[in-house]
Amino acid sequence: MTTPSPLARLLPALALAAGAALLPAPALAADAPPVVRFQDYPGHGNLLIRVARSKGWCQAAGITCELKPIPQAPLGVQALIGNSIDVAQTPIEVLASAVLRGAKLRAVAGSAVTNIFQIDAAAGLALAHEGEGYPALMQDFKGKKIGVVARGSASESFFAWLMQQAGHQADDVTYVAVGAPNTAFAALRQGQVDAISSFEPAGTMCEVSRACRVVYRGATAEKPALLRSMYGAGVALVMRAQQIAEQPQIAKAVVKISQQAADFVNDRANEAEVLKISAQYFPYDMPQGDAIAKRALELGIDSNAYKAMVRRSAVQSTLTYLQQTKQLPGAPKVEDLVWDGAPQE
Predict the structure, then answer these.
(1) Domain range spanning residue 278?
(2) Using an 8 Å Cβ cutoff, are 208 and 191 in contact?
(3) 114-134 as b/e, with b when 16 or more CB fall inside 10 Å?
(4) Which UniProt keyword terms apply here (predicted)?
(5) pLDDT band (50, 70, 90) for residue 157
């Protein structure tokens, strides 16, 4: 029996919560800048907003930024619909799932716009075709145990799609739920799985510890071609359409501070300050944590992840990918997902 994906399991909750989007935002004092509550994550998380808040750019743009830790994108979308936060940080696929079920949400700015997934293999795992890269690499995983965030998760769908695009069957491997990057890394290091389909800082932890290695990184991969065409619409900052209509100045402020922060983060001269700012929100409290944090940031910059854009053609490619992987029962229109004021580049 096929395990329903987290997106599929999220649909009923989104349908019930959609009505909450009609609730008015909390009243604010007339002389106070509006408080805008952003979703944040472990790791470097919502890095652009962390930087904007710490540099005082939120106040300069006429808003007060607050960061609310919510560790999963679907939970962030539910919190957004329920008016517990004002801006979710979510992949386009989670946004599409919500909109398909009637939620009126729009991406207003980019946050981490490259593909987040990667394949990390145990140090001792022999991969005869590793040097050839994708797609030849995928045949070496046949019969292996592959760790994924959860059964039916986006990370499983990603690995299965790579197998299929390489001419193999999705079930030529055994999928094992191993959780987020920290627990996935532990499972890989302890030999519970042969490889993992995960995301940063898993790869950085592999590199620093040498217990495993990155053999495929979605953020920089050239193949499959569809994956490459999805660059520019990975993870976005998402708001309720009603709030955008009623308070367009807030959406414009979110775009402005995101662009300012992206320029700052991508300037190598600011690396030490960016790391210091991020650590104030989430310290990498683990062995060699400083080295892991530094390397994870460098990888994001090198792959052009930290951009404020929402490239419409990339959104359309993502919708095509979701249809191919059967993660959605249908496909919304790009204009139903992206605010017309969101920056293209």
Answers:
(1) 6-114+231-336
(2) no
(3) bbbbbbbbbeebebeeeeeeb
(4) Signal
(5) confident
pLDDT per position as a tens digit, 60-94: 999 999 999 987 788 899 999 999 999 999 889 88
Q: Is 265 left (phi over 0), alpha (psi -120 to 50) or beta?
A: alpha
Classify residue 66 as left (phi > 0), alpha (psi -120 to 50) or beta. Answer: beta
The total number of structural domains in the chain stands at 2
224 belongs to a structural domain: no
Residue reference for tokens 């139903």? 336
pTM of the model: 0.81
- 209 shares its domain with 264: no
Contact of 292 with 201, CB cutoff 8 Å: yes
Q: Are residues 95 and 61 in the same domain?
A: yes
CB 6 within 8 A of CB 73: no
Residue 226 falls inside a structural domain = no
Q: Please indicate, yes or no, whether residues 292 and 147 belong to a single structural domain of this protein.
A: no
98 and 126 fall within a common domain: no
- pLDDT tens-digit map of 124-146: 999 999 999 999 999 999 999 99
Closest CA to 236 of 66, 98, 58: 98
Q: Are strands 117-122 and 212-217 parallel, antiparallel or unpaired?
A: antiparallel
Question: Does residue 184 lie in a domain region?
Answer: yes
